[in-house]
Design goal:
The protein is α+β, with helices and mostly antiparallel strands. It has three domains: 5-70, Ubiquitin-like (UB roll) (Roll); 75-158, no CATH class; 163-243, no CATH class. Helix content is 50%, strand content 15%. The chain contains nine helices and five strands. The protein has helices spanning 52-70, 75-84, 89-96, 102-107, 114-122, 126-135, 142-158, 162-196, 235-243, and strands at 5-8, 13-28, 31-42, 199-201, 207-209. The strands form two sheets. Strands 1-2-3 form a three-stranded antiparallel sheet. Helix 6 packs antiparallel against helix 7.
Amino acid sequence: MTKKELFCEDCRGMRATTPKVTEISHTIRGEEITVTVNVPFCSECGCELSDLDVEEYHHDLALKEYRRRKGLLYTDQIKAIREKYGLSQRAFARALGFAEPTINRYELGALQDTLHNNILVLVNDSSVMLKMASLNKDNLSEKEFTTLVETLNKIKSDRPSETQQDGIIGYMVKNLDRLNRKVDELLKDSKKATHSHGLKIQPDHEWQIEALPKVRTNPFEPRRSFELEPSFSNWDETFLQLDNGR
């Protein structure tokens, strides 16, 4: 693999480079951020060389670290929120009351201010996005606003409400308790069945078969097929069958 060549001012020509692990500090909004990267050095004279790709890379690393420390959204997170609502960068900015180029700059890596970041975090909730877009309705065309409302309604219909979620959790807790009771009953029945069918426990606690019944009865064998896991819609029927001993 050919080493990358860069212009060396001391050697006055293109020279092969040798990467060295180097700590570089950036001051971002008054805070010093230090990152560790591979920096190219001249293979002949040993001086540090300028590489725009490397400089851009360690600057992006510093911005990423600053975002992590301050709890700011990353560029891909901002993009994901916008795309969830099917809006262009300019339309999304206008729906939030931002200047049109703002979202484009943020998605390209510009560091957002705290106020804009907080708004972006809040509008990740579709109900908040609807309120925000309604407040800035005049900034959107009729088609943009109508399409956004349709998208928001679809998002809302695709997920259970908080009340529905609480109901599902309550239903699961209630019926899991019933299932646990049924399992206890089956375990008690199994002990009786194994003893009545010629099974006894030896001193070493191993099962020994003395005689098998003419009709094989396995208390652990399911009385119905469980190939398909019960869905929420048929849980009542599932537990009813268990309660009836099917």
